[in-house]
Amino acid sequence: MQESIPYKIYLEEQEMPKQWYNVRADMKKKPAPLLNPGTLKPITLEELSGIFCEELAKQELDDTTPFFDIPQEIRDFYKMYRPSPLVRAYCLEKKLGTPAHIYYKFEGNNTSGSHKLNSAIAQAYYAKEQGLKGVTTETGAGQWGTALSMACSYFDLDCQVYMVKCSYEQKPFRREVMRTYGAKVTPSPSMETEVGRKMNAEFPGTSGSLGCAISEAVEAAVSQEGYRYVLGSVLAQVLLHQSVIGLETKAALDKYGIQADIIIGCAGGGSNLGGLISPFAGEMLRGEADYRIIAVEPASCPSLTRGVYAYDFCDTGKVCPLAKMYTLGSGFIPSANHAGGLRYHGMSSTVSELYDQGLLEARSAEQTEVFKAAQAFAKVEGILPAPESSHAIKAAMDEALACKETGEAKNIVFGLTGTGYFDMVAYQRFNDGEMKDYIPSDEELKKATDALPKTE
Q: Is the pLDDT at 2 greater than 60, yes or no?
């Protein structure tokens, strides 16, 4: 039976999900509600609709509806690059000499180069439906900004992107793709917003952070008529849209009677991880199946493995709602490492609650080890992976080598979130032996978490 499994499992267009899955509906203990930063009370739909599109705000606050219909216009757009393949990594298995069966869900086969387009097109659609002029956002490594610029150009919406400064400088070509699609791209912290000017004054020469870029984007949205803010990760609405990844993965596995044993995703804000694991976590929550789910994060920004589970601001400027999550503190500014998309101080409330309930485990990886795994993967599987995705690759290889020791033929599934072709500065530094590992000290982390807001 195993020999009949192809290298790439493709679903037919008619097998694509017609609904997104909301894992919160199956959670007996729900993620804690978002809090209004002014009152510290659970945020209302009216309050949230001042920041987000109204339909997205409704999705954000709904933790009881298990399925949301995907509008036909979004499904038609998805067909340009979905269904994405589930690939059996035969070549990697052979190289590792493992009895394990390794599968990866490849989300890099679109111009944005990542999974981010799954939510970008949904958020742009709802903004257009509401009659807005445009949207503002932040981006770390640039994948989200690229995806949103593509989605906005499709719907003729204005797109304003605040890009974390170190990524803006390291990845000029990613920036130019955004501009090609018509987006305005500003390095963050900038001198265009109050938050940006304050950050530049307090931290001269700072390389920026995702939390700071979020604050700037929110400020830009609320100060312009006909604009709303959109976010590429962390939020429940984003995990909802990204559930298309996990739903397709499960359908592809079911097509060949494959039962996953281990599911692995890289973890930054939680969008890829949450999307990939949602249907599998749902089965666990309903008592229908059991899996090992592993979240892998950078050792330089270890929110799950070294953070605290508490209410915190989602942004450095403290203008966004507070979320209960595993966090390093909104004031934590990670080192300018190359896992740009994983440099967020907190973790999705949904993922955080699943982790707190013991449904998934977490580990961290140092970037030199991650790039070694990326290189090994690229040599045999023919895809140059993004640094973010390579965290999942490293864990998958580690698990496959553990199977080599035990002789177990486990089915390992991981999310290959995107390609690394705009990350060549990072690969150059790795190849030149200039890449350094940075792990924050306990003192640094304590300083940031000591400043967490008091909500009780």
A: no
